[in-house]
C-alpha cells in the first residue's frame, strides 16, 4: 500500500463503501473484499423507481461530474436519487495502491473488466438499496462503455440510457490509441513494473500522459481558433500545465493503467458470441446516444454505427470545439446542450 491524499474523503468525498465478499472476476481470480465507493444525491422514493446511475469516465471519481446535479437541472436531486459509483481500480474503490490484500497490491492487481464494474454496481443497487429499476443510466467515455454494458447485460432493469462520447465496443483504432496511453506510464522512469514507492516518482510519466490527452482530447479547431483563450488561459503552454497536467499529476499510475486496460477491452458483443448487432439488439431502454461531433477519441461516425443497431435510439451529436472533453462544460453552451438532451430523455415515457 502507498498513500495518496488525492483519493481521500477530503478531496473526493463524501462517499460511502459497499463491500462485496469474494468478488469473482471475469478474467479469472477474485477480490476477497471488494470495496465499491459511491456517493448519492437526493432521496430514493417509496417505489424505488426514481434512480439515476452515473458511472464515471477514465481517471474520474464519483465527484468528477457532480456539476450535472442540481435543482432545475436534468439530474435534479429533488426528483431523483442519483448514484455515482466509483470504478474498481480507480483509486477510491478497491485499487492497486489502497488494497490491504498484499496478494493483489500494486503490480499484482488483477485485470478488471467493464463487466466487473457493472456487476459490482448491480450488487450495490440491488443488495444495498433494493433497486430493481433504473430510470436512467448515463455516462461519458468509459462511463458510456458502462452504460452500454448495463443496457445489454440488464435490459429489463434499464428504462433509459444516455451513452455520451463512447462506444459499445472499443474500435481497433481506439485500442491502438489506448495502448500508447498505457505506454506513457509503463515506460516511464521509475515505474518499475508497477512497484514504485510513491506517485511523485512517476511525475514525468503522468505529465507525458497529460500532453497526449491534450493532443487528442480536444479538436484541431479548438487550437486553430485559440479557444483555450475563451477558457481563460493565456497561452497553449498554460493550458497544458494548468488544465491537463494539473488534472493527471495527483493520480496513481497503476490505477490509471487498470482503467485504461478496461477501456481497451470494452466490448458488449461478448454477450452475443461476438455479434455486436445482436448484443445491441438486446437493449430495451429508450436511448439517446450523444457523441461529440469533433471527438478524436470516440468518433461521431463510430457512435452513429452503434445508434443504428439499437431499436429505440435517437442520435444526438454534441457540437463543440472541445471535442471529447466538452463534457466538462467549460463552455456554458456545451453544458446546456447536454443538460437539455438529458431533460428531453427523462421526459420520454419508458
Topology:
Blueprint: H1 9-12, E1 16-24, E2 30-41, E3 51-53, E4 81-85, H2 114-128, E5 136-140, H3 142-153, E6 160-164, H4 172-186, H5 203-216, H6 220-224, H7 227-230, H8 236-248, H9 253-265, H10 276-280, E7 286-289, H11 300-308, E8 313-315, H12 332-346
Parallel strand pairs: 3-4, 3-5, 5-6, 6-7, 7-8
Antiparallel strand pairs: 1-2, 2-4
What does this structure look like?
Helix 2 packs across helix 3 and helix 5 crosses helix 8. The chain has two domains: 245 residues, Alpha/Beta hydrolase fold, catalytic domain (Rossmann fold); 96 residues, Rna Polymerase Sigma Factor, Chain: A, CATH 1.10.1740. It is α/β, with parallel strands linked by helices and 350 residues long. An eight-stranded mixed beta sheet has the order 1-2-4-3-5-6-7-8, with helices on both faces.
Short précis:
By secondary structure, this protein is an alpha/beta fold.
Defining traits:
single chain, 350 residues, alpha/beta, Rossmann fold, Rna Polymerase Sigma Factor, Chain: A, 2 domains
Amino acid at each position: 500500500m502507498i498513500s495518496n491524499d488525492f483519493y481521500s474523503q477530503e478531496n473526493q468525498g463524501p462517499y460511502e463503501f459497499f463491500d462485496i465478499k469474494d468478488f469473482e472476476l471475469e478474467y479469472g481470480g477474485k477480490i476477497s473484499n471488494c470495496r465499491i465507493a459511491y456517493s448519492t444525491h437526493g432521496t430514493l422514493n417509496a417505489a424505488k423507481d426514481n434512480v439515476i446511475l452515473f458511472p464515471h469516465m477514465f481517471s474520474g471519481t464519483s465527484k468528477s461530474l457532480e456539476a450535472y446535479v442540481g435543482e432545475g437541472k436534468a439530474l435534479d436531486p429533488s426528483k431523483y436519487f442519483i448514484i455515482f459509483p466509483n470504478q474498481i481500480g480507480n483509486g477510491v474503490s478497491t485499487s492497486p495502491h489502497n488494497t490491504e490484500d498484499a496478494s493483489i497490491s500494486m503490480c499484482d492487481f488483477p485485470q478488471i473488466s467493464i463487466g466487473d464494474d457493472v456487476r459490482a454496481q448491480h450488487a450495490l443497487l440491488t443488495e444495498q438499496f433494493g433497486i430493481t429499476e433504473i430510470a436512467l443510466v448515463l455516462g461519458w467515455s468509459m462511463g458510456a462503455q458502462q452504460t452500454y454494458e448495463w443496457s445489454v447485460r440488464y435490459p429489463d432493469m434499464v428504462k433509459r440510457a444516455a451513452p455520451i462520447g463512447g462506444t459499445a465496443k472499443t474500435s481497433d483504432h481506439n485500442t491502438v490509441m489506448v495502448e500508447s496511453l498505457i505506454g506513457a506510464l509503463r515506460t516511464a522512469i521509475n515505474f518499475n513494473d508497477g512497484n514504485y514507492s510513491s506517485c511523485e516518482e512517476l511525475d514525468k510519466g503522468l505529465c507525458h500522459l497529460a500532453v497526449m490527452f491534450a493532443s487528442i482530447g480536444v479538436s484541431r479547431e479548438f487550437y486553430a481558433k485559440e479557444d483555450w483563450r475563451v477558457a481563460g488561459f493565456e497561452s497553449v503552454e498554460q493550458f497544458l500545465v494548468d488544465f491537463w497536467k494539473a488534472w493527471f499529476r495527483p493520480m496513481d499510475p497503476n490505477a490509471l493503467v487498470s482503467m485504461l486496460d478496461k477501456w481497451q477491452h470494452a466490448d458488449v458483443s461478448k454477450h452475443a458470441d461476438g455479434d455486436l448487432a445482436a448484443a445491441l439488439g438486446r437493449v430495451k431502454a429508450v436511448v439517446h446516444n450523444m457523441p461529440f461531433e469533433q471527438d478524436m477519441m470516440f468518433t461521431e461516425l463510430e457512435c452513429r454505427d452503434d445508434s443504428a443497431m439499437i431499436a429505440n435510439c435517437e442520435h444526438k451529436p454534441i457540437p463543440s470545439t472541445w471535442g471529447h472533453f466538452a463534457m466538462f462544460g467549460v463552455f456554458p453552451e456545451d453544458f446546456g446542450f447536454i443538460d437539455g438532451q438529458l431533460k428531453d430523455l427523462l421526459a420520454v415515457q419508458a
